[in-house]
Each structure stands twice: as C-alpha cells, then as structure tokens.
Design goal:
Keywords: S-adenosyl-L-methionine. Pfam families: TrmO_C, TrmO_N. InterPro entries: TrmO-like_N, TrmO_C, YaeB-like, YaeB-like_sf, YaeB_N_sf. GO terms for molecular function: tRNA (L-threonylcarbamoyladenosine(37)-C2) methyltransferase activity. It comes from Litoribrevibacter albus. The protein has 234 residues and is an alpha+beta fold. The chain folds into two domains: 9-142, Beta Barrel (Elongation Factor Tu (Ef-tu), domain 3), CATH 2.40.30; 161-233, RelE-like (YaeB-like fold), CATH 3.30.2310. The protein is built from four helices and twelve strands. It has a six-stranded antiparallel barrel. Strands 9-12-11-10 form a four-stranded mixed beta sheet. A two-stranded antiparallel ribbon has the order 4-5. A hairpin with a 2-residue loop joins strand 10 (207-212) and strand 11 (215-222). The longest helix is centred in the C-terminal third of the chain and has 13 residues, at 166-178. It is globular. Bound molecules: S-adenosylmethionine (SAM). Residues 18, 21-25, 62-65, 91, 93, 100-102, 124-126, 129 line the site of S-adenosylmethionine. The site of S-adenosylmethionine has 19 residues, from strand 6.
C-alpha cells in the first residue's frame, strides 16, 4: 500500500536550527509560533469551534531529518546517549514515516484576508515544519497521570543556572521591544542544557551558539552555570 500525505500547514518558529530545541513540548513555555494553513485546507469553516480549546495535538513531519534512514535501535539522550533502546520505545525523530506528535498551547486563531493562522506556544518545532494534522487535546482521555512512563518517568532536570554578561543585558533592553519575553525565552532554552550528552560529561569551556529568531545567542558553560556572552543579529 502506498499513502500520499500533504501538509495542511507550515510552522513559523523562532527555532531556526535543531540544536537548542527542547526534546519535548511544554518545557520551554516562552517558545511561540504560528501555523500558517496552506492551500485547499485554508478554509475558515474548518477551524470553527477550535477556540474553545487551550491545547492542541499537532502531527507533523520531521522534514529536516527525513532524508536519513530510520534506525530500529537508537541511543536516547535520556540514557546518556550511550545505551540503545528500540525506536518504538522512544520519541526519536529517526523513525519510519518521519511523523512527530506534540501537544502545544493554543493561543488563538487569526483570520485576516482569508488567511487562517493558529498561534501556538510551548512547542518543540523547527521553523518550516510541515503540519500534517491538528486535533484538540482532550484531558479526560489524553491525560493519564498514572501511566508508566519508562525512561521518561521524570521530566528532564534543569541543572544549570543561566547568567547574562553585561553586554547581553544591555542588548536585551532593546531586543525585548522586538521580541517580548526574549530574556525568559533564552533562560528557558539554555536551562535545558542543550549540549550533547558526551559533552556534558567532560569539563569544557567551548563556545556554543544557538539561533533564536534572527539572533545568534552565544554562550559557554562556566563553573556549572551557563554564561550568555553575546547576542548578534544574523
Ligand atoms: N514531540 C515530538 C514527538 O514526540 O514526536 C518530537 C520529539 S523529538 C525528540 C524533538 C526534537 O525533534 C527537537 O528537539 C528537534 O531537535 C527535532 N525537530 C523538531 N522539528 C523538527 C523537524 N521539522 N525536522 C527534524 N527534526 C525536528
């Protein structure tokens, strides 16, 4: 059987590269985004009633890794990146059909000159991610607090505190006008410690950078805390 699927929408996200995106939704609440509905799916009546929901399920396509073969066994970061586990026991993006699933905050519907847009937050989606479907989150059946969550029993720890250099502090004063809550957004992204597992294990003073919006956020780990050293417009 062959299936043909086409995206119903595309995500506009401040996450411009995979590095730094949280591994699940809900971890970085200041990550905002917009889903632009495409082509024949851009029908306002298809979204009537959606505003009564606070959260939505998004099914999406891992477009940036879709050219890579799926891996039956993967090494999830949650296991320190060195133990293997089956693909279907993880949320790895290297999977058959490259389909991702995230529950996100729904902030509102916008319809301007016939263009439907959905405002979302607390997501884990790369810019330009194709959206395959949208469904309301229904707590009575979707929220299962007693479920066994295996290796995901605990939410990831945010072990490192984040400090800003004086250069960054003064740049943020202006940047906050363009990107409200940018400071909190940077704090939340970096507190997840985006470094790959093998780098966390060794002491290092490497410089890293993460792109959020059109900004290159430069940082390093120093004395068990993250120091944001500069922010540069790209
Ligand atoms: N919540 C989803 C799920 O469980 O199916 C995604 C989980 S996956 C572990 C999350 C990671 O996917 C993010 O940290 C980011 O690096 C990556 N990602 C997000 N959007 C992507 C895209 N469009 N293409 C490829 N990778 C993407």
């Amino acid at each position: 059987m062959q299936l043909t699927i086409e995206p119903i929408g595309i995500v506009h996200s401040p996450y411009k590269q995979k590095f730094g995106i949280p591994r699940q939704p809900g971890l970085v609440t200041h990550a905002s985004g917009v889903i632009e509905i495409l082509g024949k799916y851009n029908r306002p009546e298809a979204f009537e009633g959606i505003e009564q929901y606070s959260h939505l399920w998004l099914e999406f396509y891992f477009h940036q890794t879709a050219d890579k073969e799926w891996k039956p066994s993967v090494r999830p970061p949650r296991l320190g990146g060195n133990k293997k586990i089956g693909c279907f026991a993880t949320r790895s993006n290297f999977r058959p059909n490259n389909i991702g699933l995230s529950v996100v905050q729904f902030k509102g519907l916008e319809i301007k000159q016939g263009q439907v847009k959905l405002h979302i937050a607390a997501h884990d989606l790369l810019d330009q991610t194709p959206i395959l479907d949208i469904k309301p989150y229904i707590p009575y059946s979707d929220a299962l607090p007693q479920a066994n969550a295996g290796i995901f029993e605990q939410a990831p720890e945010t072990t490192l505190s984040v400090e800003l250099s004086s250069t960054v502090e003064s740049k943020l004063v202006h940047l906050e006008n363009r990107y409200p809550n940018l400071t909190e957004f940077i704090y939340q992204v970096l507190a997840q410690d985006p470094r790959p597992a093998y780098m966390k294990a060794k002491a290092n003073r490497d410089d890293f950078s993460i792109q959020l919006y059109d900004l290159d956020i430069k940082w390093r780990v120093q004395d068990k805390q993250i120091l944001v050293t500069d922010i540069i417009s790209v």
